[in-house]
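Lab channel / #folding
Pinned by the channel admin:
"Please post every new chain as: sequence first, then the structure tokens as a reply. Keep commentary short and put observations after the output so the thread stays searchable."

First post following the new format, from NK:
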Amino acid sequence: MYYKTIIQGRLEFGTQKSYDSVTKMFIQRLETYYKSDVFLKFEDIFHEDELSLEIPRYVGQVTDKAFRGTTSLLAYCAQFAIAGSIRGWLIYEGDILHYEIMEPTGDKGAVQSFVKGRKLVKMKGKENEALTALTKAIEKYDRHAQAYERRAKVNFIMKNYHEAMRDYNKCIGIDPTIPTAYYGKAKLHMMKQEWEDAIINLEESIKKSIAHQPVYWKSRKLKAECHIELKQWDKAAFDLQLFTNRSFKDDDPNKFWKRWALYTYGFVLVEQEAYAEAIKVLDKAAALPDIQDNVSESDILTLRGEAKQKSGKSGYAKDLKDAASKGSIRAANLLKRI
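Reply from TO:
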């Protein structure tokens, strides 16, 4: 049986010696162990001029055995690398059957410093230690794109915005396939209200990621916000429709923003004068639990009341009264005009 597979990423070997060793090993193992079970060709993925193995994105239909053979060989290659990461997904009818991440885990100094720094990034209050570890990784190997990307995130957290932008640009200059670098750059542009520049980077983040990664949907959400700022309602509606139609798992951070997205989509539809559709979307938003997502229950009721009134539907007065009772000044003002 054949399944959809997606594999993408890049490994850096750093020295000619490591590159020669990994290419020799790849050919030997391919001929001895894997044979027809590897669907990636040597000449398509290895690049001697950059001492790297690169798979911008492979999408195809393969067997489970071929997926496991290919990812096993790539994982072995990763142990010769000094930096980089390759990810692979085996998918059937939208569900992930297997997910593999192939990264260097050896005792090389750059590898160990990066692994340490990456762990520290996730620990609140450990920003300075993370910065030190990631800087060490870069000092040991100055083409460590992932270390630049993680250090940029730490700089962002520490409000070192100039340094964060510098590191994101450095990361992209080395490896333009890392989606989180574009996502981070977009957030920096948004802080300066540079909406067009943010959109350009978010589009790259979307292109460089897949729909099974949280960053893909985080980028869709931010892109919709930028389009709203520019009053580009059609483009905002496109992103929000995709986001609100997506079913997120409990451990996906995007699930928290589903209610916000429904409300915001309703707002955009009202701006487009698509009132009937807006009411349906806002009904879904109202049915979700009230959480700290910057949208209050009164916001949803007020907007739904406005949509009902403009579409000539009954029930708008009740929505506005309920919203006013919950503290909505806008709803109270609208009631006075009825």
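NK: The domain at 231-338 is CATH 1.25.40.10 (Serine Threonine Protein Phosphatase 5, Tetratricopeptide repeat).
TO: also worth noting, Strands lie at 2-12, 46-47, 52-63, 83-92, 95-102.
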